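Reopening closed ticket. The problem is back. First fold of the pair:
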Amino acid sequence: MIDWLPALVRTLAAGDSAVLLTIVHTVGSTPREAGTTMLVTPGDKLGSVGGGQLEWLATSAADALLEVGGPPRLLRFALGPTMGQACGGIVWLAAERIDTATQPEWQVRASAVEAGMGLRRRLSDTDGASGWTLSDPRLAGSGPDFAHLTTHGEHWCFSQQLGGDPFPVYVFGAGHVGSAVVRALTPLGTQITWVDGRAELFEAAGPQADNVRPLVTDQPTTQIATAPPGAYLLVMTHSHALDLELCEAACLREDFAFLGLIGSESKREAISRQLIHRGLHPERLDDLTCPIGIPGIEGKHPAAIAASVAAQILQVRETRMAIGHATHPGPDVPPLSSLPRPQ
């Protein structure tokens, strides 16, 4: 999810320019990784490049670009004692002004991203602005987000893939725990399909973020069948019988990223016996996580369960992404001596 994109389109449509602050490279310990982007608009900002003095200086540079304009700038920050930060690493950050005249182009990009497309970005030391192109996430090389800085002599080029990895999460159940889980997962880059047959629960929950799609249906197993490969499935309905149906439908697939069922060890045993009795091969149950949540958190409050579940899903996701990056490594990291000087 490109969380700053809708805000950028709204800002440009309102007649204001904005600045994208993007970390293009890091060395050593830093608070955020390459590819992290913060949007700075007149009087507001969305996201964070790491907080503290780093973010204050970066935001000040963005405010200057908003006031006087100019081409993209490359900034370098050593996060040591002179900056009042103890990370010890180094951050290279690009600051680029986006002018109101480009609003129609950004509207087209935003609509395409909402329809499932990704964005590719290229910015070099000789460019007056980034080049942006749409990418199809179904094609090779257009998958999970990446951000790479390459150098050649005194010249540099930053390339970035955004979107194309939608992080689909299906939450079955809109009770207290399901609602808490949706709230915990909403700001984490997820695309949430929230499924329940009780419309009044969604009405009570109120308006949802752009990345949450409440769905009222009396046939929730259909959503299991149509979920994209790599989806994260969380089963936490009010009915044991419905939980059983959803788990059976999920276990008939072998391409989901995670299947979690709320409940105890005894519930897992009961569900397992019933699924095996229905003909499911016992090995398929190895992919069922129940109880859900990271070990060591025993609290039963919905918010505590939600925090534990969100952390577990992030662990699974980052493990899968690390495996994917190891299988398809990016360009070599440039040596420190060749990295560009700040402008």
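Second fold of the pair, where the issue appears:
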Amino acid sequence: MNFRLYRDLLAIVPVRRVLLVGMLARFPHAAAGVLLTLHVVLTLDKGYAAAGAVAAVVTIGIAVGAPWRGRRVDNVGLRKALIPSVISEAVIWSVAPHVSYEWLLVLALIGGLFTLPVFSVVRQSLGVLAAGEKRRTAFTLDSIATEIVFMGGPAVGAVLATSISTVVGLTLVGISTAAAGVFLMWFNPPTRSAADGAVPPHDVEAATAAVVTAAPAHLREPAAELTQAAGAAADAADPANSGGLLRRAAAGFSWMTVSVAVVFVVAAGAGLLLASTDVGIVALVESSGDPGKLGIVFAVWCAASLVGGLLYGAMTRRISPMLLLLAMAVLTLPMSFATDTLSLALLSIPGGLLCAPVLSAASERVADLVTEERRGEAMGWYGSALTTGTAIGAPLAGAAIDTIGPWSGFAFAGAAAAMMALLTLGTRAMVIRRRIRV
């Protein structure tokens, strides 16, 4: 391990600024989840199921909008791409607290679609500003910063909701996020290298050629084969018309290889594991009759992730995100044996140590596999995969808890994530064997 990597990286002023802006921009949304739940339950006098529906709608909006927002950054630049998000964040979350539940669902969906793409922008910029071992450390620092934000954000949201009002809290979320977006536009962190030789986005075929040529050797053939196959199929169907459309569609996803898809599955597995564990912690602590100690378990879990991230970021060798996810899934299973708050907090440490490393390794892999011309869109899809896993994991774990008991949430989380990790390992092994035969 080389902890000097942190010092060297933080000595780069743009890197420090990107990490700081990322923390500031994420903090309002870290508080928004608790505020939305308490607004539906307390202010609108609905149940937790209704609150969960609002959270699900926001999640769907984010999952659908993230790739589109990332592609806008690739095509028109950061400043122009962020304008719709800045406006919508300020308007929607200032109006949402004053409408009925039905309209809140609509606004939540729109708000999710236009959410400020902090995750993809920060990771895309760090991928440009740092390379090699520094890139791993940069992504780890961002994961650690995120852990710190989510240790404090929900607590601030709860204080605002109970001490002042959820209306004021949600309005502050919108204004604060919009302000962070304006600051991000002013700072304008790089999303491409200064000499990347990017091809104008309107020239689709030329852009495709540039992406394939610039890609690493092991990615060129799959990308070229995908484009050629799509073109041939299009010409056979209708050379005069549909061929060009299909070629453009293939060109737009020339960066999507089997290796990239595997990383997205890992991201979905990580999201499922984290969300399911989250629900399991809440259920087990509440069933113990002492919900006031819930914050202790989350603090220990997040602190373990922070420590694991620091250690991983100082490592001088790469570890596969698939192996990290598998290890995290297996280490989450013992949480099923917890009997009280203390034992649950202690059993959360092993799995928690791998939270930040899994996300950092997956982000690093995407940055390595996808060229800068399409990295914003790729990071958007990566965020969507993570969000999709979260949206799937929470309700399924909840169903298992309602049917069997609190302990089953951890069993479901570990087993499902382990299966996804094994699936990706098997897929990668098949691809490697196929390449060797060819």
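Update: turned out to be a display glitch only; the data is intact. The two ends are 38 Å apart (CA to CA). Residues 195-240 have pLDDT under 50 and may be disordered. Please close again.
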